[in-house]
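Reviewers of the previous submission asked for a worked example of the structure-prediction workflow described in the proposal, so we include one complete record here. The input consisted solely of the amino acid sequence. No template or homolog information was supplied to the procedure at any stage.
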Amino acid sequence: MPEHSANPFAGLDLLSSAVVLLDTRLVIRYLNPAAENLLEISNKVFTGCPLEGVMECPPRLLAALDSVLNQGWGYTGQKIGLRLVGGEVLQLNCTVNPVDSPEASLLVELWPIDQQLRATREERLVEQQQASRELIRNLVHEIKNPLGGIRGAAQLLERELNQPGLREYTQVIIKETDRLQDLMRRLCSVHGKVA
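From that input alone, the workflow returned the following structure tokens.
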């Protein structure tokens, strides 16, 4: 016969989200390791303590917990501020579901908003960098083609001019277009190849 784990909630230990199990009186019955880290409390010390003794819950979360207990429907809330024992306020997203267990009646899942915001910011930054690269590629393409035409026209004009003084002007045009084309090549090397 397989040996049963002493902890009936051991499967919750594998989750990366913070999970708090509560009974019908909103007494903590279990905290998974993610909840211990997030809330900065110990499962061993705080199991059996009322939730309100561990953190200050906003009225809308308390009403949601009561509603889930009484009606059996799940609840999802966003941007919920929980004040911890040390005074720190955590901004969280939260899901509450009823649990059919002799040890617990509610499963509360918590996700810090800052992690979600950081991921969104990083995603937005990547999108902005891609847009910048594309803009630079297009800009380089739009500048590179006319520069080639200007340089070629200056070379043809130089061949037609008989006065050496006038050739100085075409040399300035050729020199400046070469300088701009070199700048475009350097820009391409920094921001990727341009077709």
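The beta strands are 18-22, 28-31, 55-56, 75-84, 89-98, 106-112. We consider this example representative of the routine output the project will generate in years two and three.
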